[in-house]
Specification:
The complex is a heterodimer of chains A (about 200) and B (about 300).
Chain A (H helix, E strand, L loop, with lengths): L5 E5 L5 H10 L3 E5 L2 H6 L2 E4 L4 H10 L3 H9 L4 E4 L1 H6 E5 L11 E6 L10 E5 L9 E5 L4 E5 L4 E5 L9 E6 L2 E4 L10 H13 L1
Chain B lengths: L5 E2 L2 H9 L5 E5 L2 H10 L3 E4 L4 H7 L8 H10 L4 E6 L3 H10 L3 E5 L20 E5 L2 H9 L4 E4 L9 H18 L3 H11 L3 H10 L5 E3 L7 H9 L5 E3 L1 H4 L4 H13 L4 H7 L27
Parallel strand pairs in B: 2-3, 2-9, 3-4, 4-5, 5-6, 6-7, 7-8
Classes of the chains: A alpha/beta (about 200), B alpha/beta (about 300).
Chain lengths: ~200, ~300
């Protein structure tokens, strides 16, 4: 019997509390990560929803960006929702030219791809690996995956409407990312999937 | 067809505010200020023609901003853009929605358009933030469809005391609800002048069902740290930054103090060398009929 994994939530800005609740609900130990000491103590990291421009700036100003990259390179599992997906992308379009990311996912992400807040929406989508029932997905000024490299597994796409076919959930090795916010709905299957990735990585 | 994407839902409106948590929203009056705010790490900007300190100094009727100005700011920054509509002025709100702003602030800082009714915010796809001085007021705004609440404070003063009063009041009233028996909650709903179901929801969860920011008179990093420690989810800064001696430095300092609100060493560090703070006005010296907190009910 092993102890549950300690999963950090990057707490620079955003919906940290909702991810903490979801992770606790799937049996993980949870810790907020705001410093190098915090980062060194966790087995895995969730990068929450928020403003990716702000999160990127704060990671740089607080000296966390390079340590986050180093943690990711050395095999720390990471999951990012919305802004978190942008933070994990190797390439970002429609962002400030100076926006830096942690990277690791061989994807090009388009910021605010669906439009501004008045275009934010919710819809059901099927997600590979969480069972047959669709996931109710909430998209808020969300990014989408414009293109994905050969190592990237596409887990979900928009199924209806003008944007049908757009990639909104991906996995590459120990990295998981969604354009939407499973932390807002009370359906914890995406967090269960991440906790399972973390357990298997140990 | 039930699976077609749904826009303007309560969840995407409230969720948008959840994404702003832990952040600072700054009042800006032009593109240059908007860029300074974004560079400093603001999570959003509030586009308006005059900051509250100038509205207070110049007087007159204060209205929604010029659409050209809002468009210019929207084009210049990648972070969300908010804008203010007058209390009850649903046509201004319609215009702001048409412009594609990300959040509308139905704000007491502008001159009220309707002294009886607030905007029916359920009619909109764009989400609304509204000010409140106490829990009853906050719950009435939620009943009308607000998706985010902020303390009113006393805008344009640089005096944080009213923001403190309002946050303590709202959070204290929530704490009181959590200890009440069921029969007492019926009376509480009556006294709060708010719907029972909403009062019950707050009593059960111990918090508002939406994000609670603070606003009104925040002028220093320590002000921001104070409000965050009192329980704010984030901070609006109006006149405090661009009416100060060194806006670039102060904007960054307020962002850092909001992030590290529970670390006095960092708040101390970022409080150094900021130059002049905005010139303050003590709320107590403002004639009662000039106080903004009494606008809205």
């Amino acid at each position: 019997m092993t102890s549950p994994p300690l999963i950090g939530v990057l707490a620079l800005q955003g919906d940290v509390r909702e991810h903490e609740s979801a992770l606790s609900a799937v049996g993980a130990e949870v810790k907020r990560v705001r410093s190098l000491v915090d980062l060194a103590s966790v087995d895995a990291l969730v990068i929450p929803g928020g403003e990716s421009t702000t999160m990127s700036k704060l990671a740089l100003s607080d000296g966390l960006m390079e340590p986050l990259r180093e943690a990711r390179r050395s095999g720390m599992p990471m999951y990012g929702s919305c802004a978190g997906m942008i933070m994990l992308a190797d390439r970002v379009t429609d962002a400030r030219p100076d926006q830096e990311t942690i990277g690791g996912l061989d994807i090009t992400v388009r910021r605010n791809a669906f439009g501004r807040q008045v275009d934010s929406f919710e819809t059901d989508i099927g997600i590979v690996g969480v069972g047959n029932d669709p996931v109710h997905a909430v998209f808020i000024r969300a990014p989408w995956v414009e293109s994905a490299g050969p190592e990237v597994e596409v887990l979900g796409t928009i199924e209806n409407g003008d944007d049908a076919g757009t990639i909104v959930a991906v996995r590459q090795g120990l990295l998981l990312a969604t354009s939407f916010h499973p932390e807002l709905t009370g359906d914890h299957r995406i967090h269960t999937m991440f906790a399972e990735i973390v357990r298997r990585s140990r | 067809m039930s699976n077609m994407p749904a826009v303007g839902t309560e969840r995407v409106k409230r969720g948008m505010a959840e994404m702003l948590k832990g952040g600072v929203i700054m009042d800006v009056v032009n593109v240059e200020q908007a860029k300074i705010a974004e560079d400093a790490g603001a999570v959003a900007v509030m586009a308006l023609e005059r900051v509250p300190a100038d509205i207070r100094a110049e007087g007159g009727v204060s209205r929604m901003s010029d659409p050209d100005m809002i468009d210019a700011i929207t084009a210049a920054v990648s972070i969300p853009v908010m804008a203010k509509a007058r209390i009850g002025h649903f046509a201004e709100a319609q215009v702001l929605q048409s412009l594609g702003v990300d959040y509308v602030d139905e704000s007491e800082v502008l001159s009220p358009a309707d002294y009886a009714n607030h905007i029916d915010k359920w009619q909109f796809t764009v989400p609304f933030v509204c000010g409140a001085t106490n829990l009853g007021e906050a719950l009435r705004r939620l009943t009308e469809g607000a998706a985010m609440i902020r303390s009113k404070g006393e805008a344009g003063t640089g005096d944080v005391s009213n923001a403190v009063t309002h946050m303590r009041k709202i959070l204290g009233q929530i704490r009181a609800l959590t200890s009440m028996s069921k029969d007492e909650l019926y009376v509480a709903a009556k006294e709060l002048q708010a719907p029972y179901d909403l009062v019950k929801e707050v009593a059960d969860s111990g918090r508002l069902p939406v994000v609670l920011f603070t606003a009104g008179g925040i002028a220093t990093p320590a002000d921001a740290a104070l409000m965050m420690q009192l329980g704010a989810d984030g901070v609006f800064v109006g006149s405090g930054i661009f009416k100060s001696g060194d806006p670039v430095k102060r904007a960054e300092a307020v962002v850092q103090a909001t992030l590290h609100f529970d670390n006095p060493d960092i708040v101390a560090k970022v409080s150094r060398g900021l130059g002049e703070a905005m010139v303050g006005i003590n709320v107590a010296d403002i004639p009662v009929h000039h106080r903004l907190e009494d606008r809205g009910w």
